Amino acid sequence: MKKAFALFLIIACYLCYAQESPRILKTKFSKEALAQKIVTPEGKILSIGQVLNKHKGKIIVLDIWAGWCQDCIKAFPKAKELETRNPNIHFLFFSLDRTKENFARSLEKFNMKGKENYWFSEGWKNKFNNYIDLNWIPRYLVIDQKTDIAHYYAITPDDPELQRTLDRLTQK
């Protein structure tokens, strides 16, 4: 019984730490984070800076997810609602699937084709994810019209602060 309780405490502590909001909420991306390479479904390699610059002047919701992530899959209906409620917002999807084949399968399986998708071929540990203190997925960030970070940390698409940030930015 003591072993089971100790195991429960260890898991509970891990989960609390894993989902802990970062202490510093960043408002700009570092040069290293923007230089991080990502891959399109067609295999084209771009930097995150290039992708964000394509959308400069627009509001972006960045959704970091993976097909193996149960929390991401559970969040899809709420993420779809967020997208539907905000038709003038651009949604970018960054996948942490482990292989190119898994990325392609996830796009098909979860009806992600037709959306703007990218894949971190270097995996979870990369300069962008390290910079944004990625400790849980799904993870949502709001990027403003100047490509600054307007909302740094949300782990659910129905986080009320996410919608408040979008509303505030669209009223400018």
UniProtKB/TrEMBL annotation:
Gene Ontology cellular component list: cell envelope
Signal peptide: 1-18
Cellular location(s): Cell envelope
Gene3D superfamilies on file: Glutaredoxin
GO biological process terms held by the UniProt record: cytochrome complex assembly
Thioredoxin domain segment(s): 27-171
Chief subcellular location: other
A Pfam family reported for this protein in Swiss-Prot or TrEMBL: Thioredoxin_8
InterPro entries attached to this UniProt entry: Thioredoxin-like_fold (IPR012336), Thioredoxin-like_sf (IPR036249), Thioredoxin_domain (IPR013766), Thioredoxin_ResA/DsbE_sf (IPR050553)
Superkingdom of source: Bacteria
Repeat in keyword set: no
Keywords: Cytochrome c-type biogenesis, Disulfide bond, Redox-active center, Signal
SUPFAM superfamilies referenced in this protein's UniProt entry, alphabetically: Thioredoxin-like
Protein name, per record: TlpA family protein disulfide reductase
Organism of origin: Elizabethkingia argenteiflava
